[in-house]
C-alpha cells in the first residue's frame, strides 16, 4: 500500500512534468464512482493539512474511493481526528496511516509569529503547532514542519490504544511524509527527507 502511494506520487509528478502537454488522465471518475457507490474499501488513511495545494487524492493519483482523508490546519491530532482514525483502523481495517505535512505551511509559519488571541480556536490550534517549533528554524520552516509530523505521529500512538496495539503488533503502518508544494513530490520520514 505504501508502495502504491509512492508509485502514485511518481505518476502525478511525471504527468505534469510534460510542460504544456495535457496527457490523458488515468482517472476514470465515473468508473470509480460506480465501483465505490455501494461500499468503500480505502487502502489507507491520510492525515494532512487543509492547505489548498495538498489534496491527497490527486497527489497520490488515487481519485475517488481509495483514501480516507483527514485534513486540519497543521495536520495535528485531536480527539475528533483520532476518532476518525480509529474508525478507519477498527471498522474499515485500514493498515496504513500517513501523516503528511507540507512545505511552506501557513500553520507552521504562524507558530513563529503572533496570533491574535481573540480568534480563540485558531489561537489554540497554533499553540498546538508551536510545540513542534525547531529552535532557530528559518522560513519556510520545513524543519519544524517535519518535527510537527513526527509529533503528530507520537500523539496518535500515545492517545489511541486501538492504533497503538495494532502498530505494536505490526498490523498497522504509521508513516510520516512531507509534500513539496513547489514540485509535487512527497518525501518520506526515515527514508528520504
Ligand atoms: Zn499547511
From TrEMBL:
<dbReference type="InterPro" id="IPR036874">
    <property type="entry name" value="Carbonic_anhydrase_sf"/>
</dbReference>
<dbReference type="Pfam" id="PF00484">
    <property type="entry name" value="Pro_CA"/>
</dbReference>
<dbReference type="InterPro" id="IPR001765">
    <property type="entry name" value="Carbonic_anhydrase"/>
</dbReference>
<comment type="similarity">
    <text>Belongs to the beta-class carbonic anhydrase family.</text>
</comment>
<protein>
    <recommendedName>
        <fullName>Carbonic anhydrase</fullName>
    </recommendedName>
</protein>
Amino acid at each position: 500500500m505504501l508502495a502504491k502511494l509512492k508509485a502514485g506520487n511518481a505518476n502525478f509528478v511525471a504527468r505534469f512534468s510534460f510542460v504544456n502537454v495535457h496527457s490523458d488522465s488515468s482517472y476514470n471518475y465515473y468508473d470509480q464512482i460506480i465501483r465505490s457507490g455501494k461500499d468503500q474499501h480505502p487502502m489507507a488513511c491520510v492525515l494532512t493539512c487543509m492547505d489548498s495545494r495538498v489534496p491527497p487524492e490527486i497527489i497520490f493519483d488515487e481519485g475517488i474511493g481509495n483514501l480516507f482523508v483527514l485534513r486540519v490546519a497543521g495536520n495535528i491530532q485531536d480527539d475528533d481526528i483520532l476518532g476518525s482514525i480509529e474508525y478507519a483502523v477498527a471498522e474499515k481495517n485500514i493498515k496504513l496511516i500517513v501523516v503528511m505535512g507540507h512545505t511552506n505551511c501557513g500553520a507552521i509559519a504562524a507558530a513563529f509569529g503572533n496570533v491574535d488571541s481573540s480568534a480563540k480556536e485558531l489561537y489554540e490550534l497554533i499553540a498546538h503547532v508551536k510545540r513542534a517549533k525547531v529552535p532557530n528554524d528559518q522560513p519556510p520552516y520545513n524543519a519544524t514542519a517535519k518535527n510537527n509530523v513526527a509529533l503528530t505521529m507520537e500523539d496518535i500512538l500515545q492517545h489511541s490504544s486501538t492504533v497503538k496495539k495494532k502498530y505494536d503488533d505490526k498490523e498497522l503502518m504509521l508513516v510520516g511524509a512531507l509534500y513539496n508544494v513547489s514540485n509535487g513530490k512527497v518525501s518520506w520520514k526515515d527514508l528520504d527527507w
